[in-house]
Automatic annotation (TrEMBL), chain A:
The chain crosses the membrane at residues 31-50, 156-177, 189-209. SUPFAM superfamilies: MetI-like. Keywords: Membrane, Transmembrane, Transmembrane helix, Transport. It comes from Streptomyces actinomycinicus. The lineage of its organism: Bacteria, Bacillati, Actinomycetota, Actinomycetes, Kitasatosporales. GO terms for biological process: glycine betaine transport; transmembrane transport. One of its GO terms (cellular component) is plasma membrane. Residues 27-213 form the ABC transmembrane type-1 domain. Belongs to the binding-protein-dependent transport system permease family. This is ABC transporter permease. It is found in: Cell membrane; Membrane.
From TrEMBL, chain B:
It is an enzyme of class 7 (translocase). It comes from Streptomyces actinomycinicus. GO terms for molecular function: ABC-type quaternary ammonium compound transporting activity; ATP binding; ATP hydrolysis activity. Its EC number is 7.6.2.9. This is ABC-type quaternary amine transporter. Residues 2-237 form the ABC transporter domain. Transmembrane segments: none annotated. Keywords: ATP-binding, Nucleotide-binding, Transport. It holds the Pfam family ABC_tran.
Length: 222, 376
C-alpha cells in the first residue's frame, strides 16, 4: 500500500465522516484553535509592529524578540506549559501564540517602516493628524507585506496545532497521534493530508482577503 | 504677510542650517528661495509650516506668531508641494486631491466636486480622475501635487523643488502653468529651487541663500541681474547674466523696418524700389516669412524658394523681450531679426545694430530710475 492508497482508504471510509471523531468535527476543532491563536497573536503583534514601524524605533529589540521566539521549540514549550498549568486549551495556545507573534510583529514593523517617506511627509505637511498618517497613509501601502506576515504565522499555526492532540485535545492532530499509537497508517496519512489541505485553504483565504482589501493602486505599483 | 524674524535653525547634530535669517515675504506674489544644495532652503520652507521648529527667532503670519495656532490648523491653511509629488498610491487621483477638504470635514461628494474643479484648473484631463498615481507620468503627478495643495484654497502655498525631477520640456510647461494659475488665484507662494533660471522666471522676489543658511541678497530678479550684491551672487547667477537680464526689457519699443519685406509675388519695379537694403525678406501669400534673399538674386514672379536663406526664429514684439529679439538676430544668417504678429505674419525686420541701441537705451533708463530713487 502506498500513501495514495492510505489516503483513499481513509477518506472513503464513511465512518470517518461523522461523530465526535469524524472529519468535520476534527477539522472544525483545528480551525477553532488556529483562529484563536492567530487572533491573539495578531492582537499582540499588529499594534506593536504598527507603532514601532511608524516611529521607526525599537527595530533591534524586535529582532531580538523574534529570534528568541523562533528559537523556542513549540513542543518543548507545550510540555513545560502542561507541567506548569495542567491540561486545557491555555497550555496549547501559549506555544502557538509564541510561534506566531514574531513573524507578525517583525513583518508589520518592516512593512510600515519601508513605506515611501515622501507621501508621509506630504501628509504631515498638509496637517494630517499622526493617527491618520498611520492608518490612512502608511497602513494601506504596507498592507500586502503585513498580510504576508499574518499568512506565514497562520500556516505555522495550522501545522503546529496538531500538538494539541498530545494533551488530550481534539483537532486534526488526533488522527496523526492516535494513528501512530494504533499503527493505523490510514489515519496518519489522512490526518497529514487534512493538515496540508487546511494550509492550502489558508493560503486561498489570504489571497482573497488581499484581493478585496488592497487598493489596486498599491497592488500594481508595489 | 509672512515675516521671518532673525530665525536660526541648529539641528541636534550641531549643523547650522539657517543662520539669523530675516525675510519679509510679500502677499499674493511668488517669493523664490534659491541657492546651492545644502544652503538651508528646505529647512527655511519647513519652518514656515512648522515641519521644522526654529532654534531661535520667530515667524509671523499676518502679524501673529505661527506657534499661536494649533499646528495642524496652520498646516491646513498652507498648501504643501514636494519634489516627488508624494502622492498616496492607494488613492485615486481625485481622492488624492480631495485630501485636505476631507481633513477639514467636507463631505465626500463636495470634496470630490472640488477636486474635479482643480483637475481642470491645473490642466489635467478629467479622464484621469479614477486612475492611480502609478498610471501617471512624472509631470502629471506633479500637477496632481499642485492641485492637492490648492484644494482647500489656502492663502499660502509652500513648494519645495516641485519641478526638479521632471525633464526640461515638461518643467517649462509646469512653470508656465504655475504662472498662469498664480495670475488667476494670486496666492502667497514660497518656492524653493536650486535652479537660478527657474528662480528668475518665476520669482516676483528672489532670496539668494549662501551655504550656512545666510541671506546673500533679496531682490526682484531684474535687480539681481543688474546689481548682484557680491561675488557669490554674481557667480551663482552665471556667466551670461547680461544676456539674461535682457529678458526683463520688452521688445515692443523696437523700431521695425517694413521696407525690406516683400511679398513673393512682387513685380520687378517693387523689388528694385526696395533694393536699398542688403537683404530682403520674402513673405508668402499668407504674409508669413519664407526667407531672406539678396535683392539682385530676386527675379519677379519666379522666386526659387530653395535659394532663400533661413530667417531664424521670429519674435513677437508685443510679448517677447529684447533677449528673444537679439537671439533671433544672432541666429539669422543676415543679422536681422524677423518680427511677426500672433498669426505668424511678418510685420517688420530689425537689425542687430538697432537692437543694440535699444539695449543701451533700456540700460540708461534703468540707471536714471535708480538715480531718481536714490534722490540724486
Ligand atoms: N534633520 C536634519 N538633521 C541634521 N542636519 C540636517 C537635517 N536636515 C538638513 N540638515 C542639514 O542642514 C543643511 C541644510 O539642509 P536643507 O535645508 O535640506 O538644504 P537645501 O534644501 O538648501 O538643500 C544641510 O547641511 C543638511 O545636511
Ligand atoms: Mg532641499
Amino acid at each position: 500500500m502506498n500513501v495514495l492508497d492510505f489516503a483513499r482508504a481513509f477518506f472513503t471510509d464513511s465512518a470517518h465522516w461523522h461523530g465526535y471523531d469524524g472529519i468535520p468535527t476534527r477539522f472544525a476543532e483545528h480551525v477553532g484553535y488556529s483562529l484563536e491563536a492567530l487572533v491573539i497573536a495578531a492582537v499582540i503583534g499588529l499594534p506593536v509592529g504598527l507603532v514601532t514601524g511608524h516611529y521607526g524605533r525599537g527595530g533591534n529589540t524586535l529582532a531580538l524578540i523574534a529570534t528568541a521566539g523562533r528559537a523556542l521549540p513549540s513542543f518543548g514549550l507545550l510540555v513545560l506549559m502542561v507541567i506548569w498549568l495542567g491540561l486545557g486549551t491555555l497550555p496549547v495556545m501559549i506555544p502557538l501564540v509564541v510561534l506566531a507573534v514574531p513573524p507578525i510583529l517583525v513583518t508589520t514593523y518592516e512593512a510600515v517602516r519601508s513605506v515611501d517617506p515622501s507621501p508621509v511627509d506630504a501628509a504631515r505637511g498638509m496637517g494630517m493628524p499622526e493617527a491618520r498618517v498611520l492608518f490612512q497613509v502608511e497602513l494601506p501601502v504596507a498592507l500586502p507585506l503585513i498580510y504576508s506576515g499574518l499568512r506565514t504565522a497562520a500556516i505555522q499555526i495550522v501545522s503546529t496545532a496538531t500538538i494539541a492532540a498530545y494533551v488530550g485535545l481534539g483537532g486534526i492532530g488526533r488522527y496523526i497521534i492516535d494513528g501512530l499509537y494504533q499503527k493505523d497508517y490510514e489515519k496518519v496519512v489522512g490526518g497529514a493530508t487534512l493538515v496540508a489541505g487546511l494550509a492550502l485553504v489558508t493560503l486561498a483565504v489570504f489571497w482573497a482577503v488581499s484581493r478585496l482589501t488592497v487598493s489596486p493602486g498599491v497592488r500594481r505599483s508595489g | 504677510m509672512i515675516r521671518i524674524e532673525s530665525v536660526t535653525k541648529r539641528y541636534p547634530d550641531g549643523t547650522v542650517a539657517v543662520d539669523r535669517l530675516s525675510l519679509e515675504i510679500p502677499d499674493r506674489a511668488i517669493t523664490v528661495l534659491v541657492g546651492p544644495s545644502g544652503c538651508g532652503k528646505t529647512t527655511t520652507l519647513r519652518m514656515i509650516n512648522r515641519m521644522v521648529e526654529p532654534s531661535e527667532g520667530s515667524i509671523l503670519l499676518d502679524g501673529q506668531d505661527i506657534r499661536q495656532q494649533p499646528v495642524n490648523t496652520l498646516r491646513r491653511s498652507m498648501g504643501y508641494v514636494i519634489q516627488n509629488a508624494g502622492l498616496f498610491q492607494h488613492r485615486t487621483i481625485l481622492d488624492n486631491i480631495a485630501t485636505v477638504p476631507r481633513l477639514l470635514g467636507w463631505n465626500k461628494q463636495k470634496a470630490r466636486a472640488r477636486a474635479a474643479e482643480l483637475m481642470e484648473r491645473v490642466g489635467l484631463d478629467s479622464a484621469l480622475a479614477k486612475r492611480y498615481p502609478y498610471q501617471l507620468s512624472g509631470g502629471q503627478q506633479q500637477r496632481v501635487g499642485v492641485a492637492r495643495a490648492l484644494a482647500a484654497d489656502p492663502p499660502v502655498l509652500l513648494m519645495d523643488e516641485p519641478f526638479s525631477a521632471v525633464d526640461p520640456v515638461v518643467r517649462k510647461g509646469l512653470q508656465d502653468e504655475l504662472l498662469r494659475i498664480q495670475e488667476e488665484l494670486g496666492k502667497t507662494i514660497v518656492f524653493v529651487t536650486h535652479d537660478i533660471d527657474e528662480a528668475i522666471k518665476l520669482g516676483t522676489k528672489v532670496a539668494v541663500l549662501r551655504t550656512g543658511g545666510r541671506l546673500a541678497q533679496f531682490a526682484p530678479p531684474a535687480e539681481l541681474l543688474s546689481a548682484p550684491a557680491d561675488s557669490f551672487v554674481e557667480d551663482f547667477l552665471g556667466a551670461d547674466r547680461g544676456i539674461r537680464r535682457l529678458s526683463f526689457f520688452p521688445a515692443d519699443g523696437l523700431a521695425l523696418e517694413t521696407a525690406p519685406v516683400v511679398p513673393v509675388d512682387a513685380d520687378a519695379g517693387e523689388i528694385a524700389s526696395r533694393a536699398t537694403a542688403p537683404y530682403l525678406l520674402v513673405t508668402g501669400s499668407d504674409g508669413r516669412p519664407l526667407g531672406w534673399s539678396e535683392p539682385d538674386k530676386l527675379t519677379a514672379g519666379a522666386v526659387d524658394r530653395e535659394q532663400l536663406l533661413d530667417y531664424g526664429r521670429p519674435f513677437l514684439p508685443a510679448t517677447d523681450s529684447l533677449r528673444t529679439a537679439l537671439d533671433g538676430a544672432v541666429l539669422s544668417p543676415t543679422g536681422w531679426a524677423v518680427a511677426v504678429d500672433g498669426e505668424g505674419r511678418a510685420v517688420g525686420v530689425v537689425s542687430q545694430q538697432v537692437i543694440g541701441e535699444a539695449i543701451r537705451d533700456a540700460h540708461s533708463r534703468v540707471a536714471e530710475r535708480a538715480d531718481a530713487k536714490a534722490g540724486r
